[in-house]
Amino acid sequence: GLSVTAVPVGDWDALGAHASVLREDVFVQEQGIGAHMVWDDADALAVHAVAFNRLEQPVATGRLLQHEPGVARIGRMAVNRGLRGAQLGRAVLVALIDAARARGDHEVMLHAQTSAEGFYRRLGFVARGPVFEEAGVQHIEMVLPLKSETQ
Length: 151
Known about the structure:
The protein is an alpha+beta fold. Helix content is about 25%, strand content about 35%.
């Protein structure tokens, strides 16, 4: 895999086509999740991040929503299957955490697939609550407290 040259953050109009390609590949084709569960109206409200390689191909994506005042929710994290382990998911996650921090959020939460729990733990997230099923896949809620720029 080529190294990432950019991880832009923006709205669905700017990044949706690129995010959609990755979601289709990872969630629908690879994991067998129904397409009706991969896209929703929240995409229009979310902040999206897409990592691009040197050839300007989208290789990882995720989105950031306002879960409740001061609490961001990251979701729809997807990394090209052949490039997992190349820090692309980390780059997207950091970009979204930075966007939450810049917005003034004090916590980031997400529903991690249990197979990815270690990935999120290494970045400081902690599990909260029991394992549950979402879209036919085992998940666990994880949270990351954010410190403000002045702390």
